[in-house]
Every structure is written in structure tokens, then in C-alpha cells.
Specification:
67 residues, Alpha-Beta Plaits, 3-stranded antiparallel β-sheet, two-stranded antiparallel ribbon
Length: 67
Amino acid sequence: MYMKPRLNVIWNEIYCKRCIICVEVCPVQALAFERDEIVERPGCIRCYQCERYCPDIAIEVMDEEKR
């Protein structure tokens, strides 16, 4: 499986170059880089900053109605 669904975030490990920009821009520290993966922690507020700033289009924030 290449798309890894999380609580609110879908991370594409194939596209991701592990620059951790998504982790750095998250205002509530809901993302972390652990064991070569982007991991979502509880607390995502769906601000879409990780999706917006990802240079590799490797992050997608799920809309609330799609959950």
C-alpha cells in the first residue's frame, strides 16, 4: 500500500522525499517524522498547511465530509 491513511492526513511515501517541511509548518505539532515516515498525532485542526507547503504533493488532508 503506497497511500498511508492517518487520522486526517494521507501521506504518499513514494512521492515524499522526507524534507519534513510538513512537520515544521504544522501549527499544532500534529505531524512527526519517525522511523522514516510522516506520522500523524492526535490534534490535527485541518489547517491544510502541510498540504499547501509540501513541494512533492505527498500530503493530502482529508475533508471532514469524506471521513
